[in-house]
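Crash report, auto-generated. Payload:
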Amino acid sequence: MASTAAPPARRVKKRVRNETAVAYLFLSPYLLVTVVFTVGIVAFALYISFTSYNLFESPTWVGLDNYRKALADTGPSGFLRSLVNVFWYVITVVPFQTAIALMLAIVLNTPVRAQQFFRTVFYGPSVTSSVVIASIFLWLYLKTGVINYVFDQTFSLFGAQWTAIEWLNDPRGLFQIIANAFGGDIPSDQWLFRGPSVTWLALMALNIFTTAPTFMIMYLAALQDVPPTLYEAASIDGASKRQQFRSITLPMLRPVTLLIVVLGTIGSFQVFDQVKILTSGGPLNTTLTPVYLVYSEALGEVGGGSVIRMGLASAMAFVLAVIIFIFAFIQRRYIESGTEQY
Amino acid sequence: MSTSTVAPVAPAPAAGRDIRKAGGRALRYVLMIGLGLFLFGPFILSFFGSFKTNAEITAYPPSLLPSGEWQFENWPRFFGTDVGGEARLDGAVSLGLMAGLFAAFLTLLLTGLTSEIKGKTLPRSVGLPLSILLALAGGAASALYVNVRTDAEVVEWATVGAAITVLLLVAVLLLAMSQPDWRRVLMALGWSLALFAFVTVLIEQVAMLAGGGRVWRWLFNTSVLSVMKASLQLVFCVMAAYAFARLRFPGRGFIFAFMLATMMIPGAVTLVPAYVLMSKLDWINRAYSLIIPGIVSAGSIFLLTQFLKSIPHELEESAYIDGASYFQTLKDVVLPLARPALLTVFILQFQAMWNDFLGPLLYLQRRDMWVMNVALNIFTGQFRAELNLLLVAAMLNAAPVLVLFFLFSRFYIQGVAYAGVKG
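Recovered output after restart:
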């Protein structure tokens, strides 16, 4: 390598050139795969979103037709319906999973014996695949299943009667149930005002159950990074535990909270696995999600027919991506602007 | 724990506080155990559920343990499941080719660096003919193999040929950079080609033996894919991470920022075009569709880069001064230090592939190419009548990942925390 006889300047120059070559050689597998399977593919997706394409004939240019078709479809199984569904999903799942993750992390962060063991146990639902969890909950959510049993037992403790719910096949909307309780009703064509269905709520609970432990680990790592001297100083100043939590712990956790909320939002907008396994978008399309629609349009599984509409599927995916970016951007702005005051 | 040792020394007025403290600790444990049972409960329930009869599993009120006789035969019954898929050659070959390619690549990198066998340097008169012989034998075996398979109407050779050529080229270049001695490069090439032929045929034969629509085949598919993807990521992501963390080159900042940006692209956007690409390449129902795009991932590279940056420079500097090449430094100095991060990446990627659902659902549709998750999806759809078998399948699918996690939870949690917080 470095021969000592060469003049230093030349040696350095040669070394720099060599370094560049080696670096690009080391990066070549990554660059190749990314250029083809990320950049190329996204560009291609953008192109076919403006075409009519069924995989077998060459794509024909249709301009904005696909976007118009997707956004104008207000039918009960259309794209807008799926967006409304996923919107309910995001605004429910993200706050709950973040709050529960924080709570679990705080519980785990207390000094107990076998902390490692508890951490492992708590993390269990996040390690296994969504398919496994969904299969198990398919059973737990049965009308004669454990969940109904637990509700039954809890209600009977208070002397109330619990009517068993068919969790995975109950299209009644939340607002509809509330309206019913007050003697009113919301007709089925007013799906927008019926709110998330019971089945959809059940899937939300399932998802919170599996993702909260993942984010718990992130919170836990962040909690352990908070310098203990801060707490010591605060307790010398006479701050109570509650005050310490509000003025030290929460502000210190802001960056990781931003990350968790953004990651949670991106993930929740793309919910697919549980829907595919447990409900296939039903009952009455109340669990239809954008990614599920994209998937079924791309594979030609819509309505039992075999019409493949790659262009439409791609357009839907892009609309979803834009919505995700907007949400992530707003969250970032909102949470970061809050950071400045500390 | 330290508080409890301090407590007895505390003066008498603090006795009330001691009791409160002990009560608080007991409460903490109760809370922990309660939450643990809640979060792990579904697994416990379904573990016992997998030993129940089908009638009992849907009976109300539900019970934890099987009330009658334990149905141990549920498990062998599930293993006996045969949904009648035909074991086809193309899928098996794709698995074999990918595994063989990986084995070859790794041997090329590891053995090519030395012509020593068990610490003894080979005399040139032995080493040179041996190298040539090995290269010829390996090359001939591969050529023969490809020839036979092409006759058997396996067309994917052409599409994979490009990938193989590129990878081998990268490997040979790396070798040539670190080892100017061409005999060693030749020998490494010989070894790797021989191993390539062997592993390819081995994996492919096992896959054919495991049959078509059977549990054994799905387990085999899932394991091969997961191990392969995780191992490939180790090799290629470490290389990229080393470049980002240690080498200075024009475009580094841009490529790194670009990589981080790609992590934000929602998977939904790439779903359609990736499927189109795979069907155009005729990679549907072939292992390539999952392995080749999966040899690198931005997340792994990012994690490894952050870790490599935290390793002190000094050792590498002295290796350079001693005349080691970049590749030698990476292999002999950096990699041993980076072992915890490597293990983390391996575990995370193994789990990611094992748990992946949408990818295999799209690309591996034929029954002999299913992975466990896809099979499980079919079970939930078609075999709702036999929920106890579904639970057996779920437990079986969860077991490898859970075991891996229990063994290496420290690394696992480190990885999740590292990627999230230190980023």
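Post-recovery validation: Chain B has a mean pLDDT of 79.
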